[in-house]
Amino acid sequence: MTDYTVDEIMCTTLAAQFHDGDEVCNGMASFIPVAAIMLARATHAPGVVWLAGAAGVDPRPDRVPASTLEAPLWRDSVMYLEQYGDFWHYAQNGKNLGIFCVGAAQLDMYGNANNSIIGDDYHRPKVRLPGTAGLGDMGSLGKKLYYWNPNHSPRSIVEKVDFRSAAGYLGGGDERAQLGLAGGPELVVTNLAVLDFHPDSKRMRLCSVHPGTTVEDVQAATGFELLLPEGEVPETVPPTAEQVRLLREVIDPDGMCKREAGVRS
Amino acid sequence: MTKVMSIEEAAALVVDGDVVALQNMATQAAPMAMVRELIRQQKRNLGLVCLVGGMPVDWLAAAGVIDRFIGAAVSMEQFGLCQQYRKAVEEGRIRVEELSETALNARLGAGARNLPFLPTRGLIGTDLIDINENLTLFQDPFGGETLVACRALVPDVALVHAHRADEHGNVQYEPTILWPDIGIFPKAAKKVIVTAEEIVDSEVLRRNPDRTVLPGFRVDAVVEVPYGAHPTSFYPLYGYDTKFHVEWTKVARDAEQTQVFLRRYVLEPETQADYLAAVGGSERLMEVTRI
Fold it and tell me: What is the CATH number of the domain that holds A194?
């Protein structure tokens, strides 16, 4: 079996979600999604359209750079999107940019996200988080949201977010649909497992556990009772030797994803 | 009439209590020389508008210049959260109006067009609407769909940095990503102050009018400041200064060390040349220019 690290299985799992013709955006500090997009484009899905940092169209960076919101990422783009006039016009129009990869300080059992505050008083928070940025839009604009979280813990995967800075499935069931919102959280890829949302109740559900991790490990790291799939919980498909080689030698030789996932190299 | 002035004269156009739209992203394109001058002139009770704010927000918070923030996020990306800003918010010294990007763009877009509001579909289903008196749900009068009305925002001043400008205030950018800071801030604000890497003859701008992003009739003041965005990046001229960001993050949790840092890099250097010497001179500038 191929040796791989946790950032690598997160990258290959995310990469497998992207197909030719998909239009995918990344935001800031998004090393694992950027590596996943680059891996998909270098292997099974060269026709993935990439909106790098919501700014550069189809760039060709020579590697995952030290920032996912700076010019080295959008090197060799075919177009620069002006953020006010271009990017949000295309993004608000349902025809384009269907997939957004995002991280959140807290994600709850119905896929609602919090990047605003920890605590119960918005104006005197225990912790001020960075802010909702584009996530507060993407949650309500009918996009498919792919969450990644390299620190799956009861503090980050919680029963209810302290503050809802992006809409998931709200209180579950058809609550989201009743507000007229399409799309929503599609998948959650963590350092332990892959999770999705039950089609009816919209509760977070375990899809697969990474090799070496048990269902009990994942449950213990989760702030609420997880739904389980029927039958035995499958293992996440591990990276191939070629995927590992590409990630280490070509796509992310500086180990930005390892740094993001806290992997010592 | 020339609009060229000194950084001191330009900063004096900013009045205590003003709402100031400040160009920057996590590590990008901030008019840092102007930010330092605002601190040197001991401005107080400014409200700050940013799409994404980075180091300048942290400095202005540490120096007690700002008491409101209106924007979508504050972060220095790989250099972490802005600790002085964060502490000020947690202690109630800075009040945050957190907007999504489309909501901020809608507020500024309404301000620019002299409309009372513009709508967005963003933020529906979040808690950010309930706590913000500048956002409210309403029914589309044509189809009945529920949307968010975003009240017009007219900043008192927009502060932007550019590659070049002429004395009339025509402002030009080299081919690069254009954030809303240059796309909408100057259109919405009452006053516009531009720092530029160089001030050139209008003939230079006339060679590439497609690169002129702001007409002189919208601009009030122009200041020449080479490396005026350092330590943030200003592509394609220079990248962000990694060492300087790391130096700041090391002191930013400590009140006393923060003040020592600000004295050394903000209060003591009297000119841009003094500042550039303080941060390491031509050797350091060569490093950030090698991108």
Answer: 3.40.1080.10
Q: How confident is the model at residue B144 (pLDDT cuts 50, 70, 90)?
A: confident
Report d(CA B171, CA B191) in Å as an integer. 15
User: B203: part of which helix (H) or strand (E)?
Assistant: helix B202-206
Q: What are the CB-based long-range contacts (under 8 Å, 24+) for A120-123?
A: A120/A162, A122/A163, A122/B127, A122/B131, A123/B92, A123/B95, A123/B96
Mean pLDDT value across chain A: 95
pLDDT in tens, B102-142: 999 999 999 999 999 999 999 999 999 999 999 999 999 99
Q: Is residue A20 part of a domain?
A: yes
Q: Which of residues 92-111 of B touch A (CB under 8 A)?
A: 92, 95-96, 98-103, 105, 109
How many structural domains are present in chain B?
A: 1
Q: Which of A87, A82, A117, A110 is nearest to A100 (CA)?
A: A87
| For chain B, the helix, strand and coil percentages under 3-state DSSP, each to the nearest 5 | 35, 25, 40
Nearest to A136 among B26, B128, B240 (CB): B128
Tell me how far CA of residue A163 lies from CA of A96, A125, A186, B44, B95, in angstroms. Answer: 29, 10, 21, 30, 16
Total domains in the fold of chain A = 1
The ipTM estimated for the assembled molecules is 0.96
**In this structure, is residue B261 part of a structural domain?**
yes
Q: Is there a contact between A28 and B52 if contact means CB atoms under 8 Å apart?
A: yes
Q: What is the pTM of this model?
A: 0.96
Task: Give the pLDDT confidence score for residue A249 in this predicted structure.
Answer: 98
Question: What pLDDT score does A2 carry?
Answer: 80
Q: What is the helix, strand, coil percentage profile of chain A, to 5?
A: 25, 20, 55
Antiparallel, parallel or unpaired: β A49-52 and A56-57: antiparallel
Confirm or reject contact between A118 and chain B (CB < 8 A): no
Cα–Cα dist A176/A194, whole Å: 22
Q: Check CB contact under 8 Å for B92 and A74.
A: no
User: Residue B196 sits in a domain of what CATH number?
Assistant: 3.40.1080.10
Residue B237 belongs to what domain range? 7-99+154-274
Give the closest of A55, A128, A132 to B177, CB-based: A55
CA distance A121 to A101: 29
Of A128, A166, A181, Cβ closest to residue B86 = A128
Cα B32–Cα B74–Cα A133 angle in degrees, nearest 5: 125
What element of type H or E holds A91?
helix A88-92
Q: Tokens representing A103? A: 């991280």
